[in-house]
């Protein structure tokens, strides 16, 4: 909706698209593996799950930053237009519906408010999902056959994550 207004090639648009693209490819790969009932302890699920629940830590704030910077660019553009010129996505009165909508004010007040109220709960939800995923991985390694438990990395993992620790 705002891409025609943001200056062509602005890095905020690139940042937003890059973060969205990487996040969505990993997310859809992760859910595809889940639909195929791939074991949580399999190598592919371990890698894709690790990417899914670790890259969001960086990519989500970067994506939101790119989105907000793009909105700021649009706000600057709308502010630079003369008052007599019609502004994009703005409805002024009088009109048949007798309503008005000022896109510039929407970008200035509503968009940051929505991000301030909605981003923290979403981000914390993903942190909780990350903790659940890590517990699932730890539990799957606890079910390793006995003949493999003498390997040092597994032995250390089993010692640090005894079955009583996973219930917390």
TrEMBL record:
GO biological process: fatty acid elongation; sphingolipid biosynthetic process; very long-chain fatty acid biosynthetic process
Parts of the chain that traverse the membrane: 12-33, 53-75, 105-126
UniProt-annotated location(s): Membrane
InterPro entries attached to this UniProt entry: Tyr_Pase-like_PTPLA
Chief place of localization: membrane
Enzyme Commission number, as recorded: 4.2.1.134
Pathway: Lipid metabolism; fatty acid biosynthesis
Membrane topology value: Multi-pass membrane protein
Alphabetically ordered keywords of this record: Fatty acid biosynthesis, Fatty acid metabolism, Lipid biosynthesis, Lipid metabolism, Lyase, Membrane, Transmembrane, Transmembrane helix
Reactions catalysed, as given in the entry: a very-long-chain (3R)-3-hydroxyacyl-CoA = a very-long-chain (2E)-enoyl-CoA + H2O
Pfam families, sorted: PTPLA
GO molecular function: very-long-chain (3R)-3-hydroxyacyl-CoA dehydratase activity
Gene Ontology CC terms, in alphabetical order: endoplasmic reticulum membrane
Similarity-based family: Belongs to the very long-chain fatty acids dehydratase HACD family.
Protein name (Swiss-Prot/TrEMBL): very-long-chain (3R)-3-hydroxyacyl-CoA dehydratase
Native species: Strombidium rassoulzadegani
Lineage: Eukaryota, Sar, Alveolata, Ciliophora, Intramacronucleata
């Amino acid at each position: 909706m705002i891409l025609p207004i943001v200056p062509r090639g602005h890095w905020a648009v690139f940042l937003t698209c890059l973060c969205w693209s990487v996040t969505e490819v990993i997310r859809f790969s992760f859910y595809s593996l889940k639909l195929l009932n791939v074991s949580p302890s399999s190598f592919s699920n371990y890698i894709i799950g690790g990417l899914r629940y670790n890259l969001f830590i960086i990519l989500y704030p970067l994506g939101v930053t790119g989105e907000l910077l793009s909105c700021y660019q649009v706000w600057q553009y709308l502010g630079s237009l003369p008052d007599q010129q019609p502004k994009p996505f703005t409805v002024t009165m009088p009109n048949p519906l007798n309503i008005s909508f000022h896109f510039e004010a929407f970008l200035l007040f509503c968009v940051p408010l929505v991000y301030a109220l909605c981003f923290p709960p979403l981000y914390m939800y993903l942190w909780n999902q990350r903790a659940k995923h890590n517990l699932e991985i730890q539990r799957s390694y606890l079910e390793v056959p006995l003949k493999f438990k003498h390997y040092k990395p597994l032995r250390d993992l089993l010692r640090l994550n005894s079955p009583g620790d996973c219930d917390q």
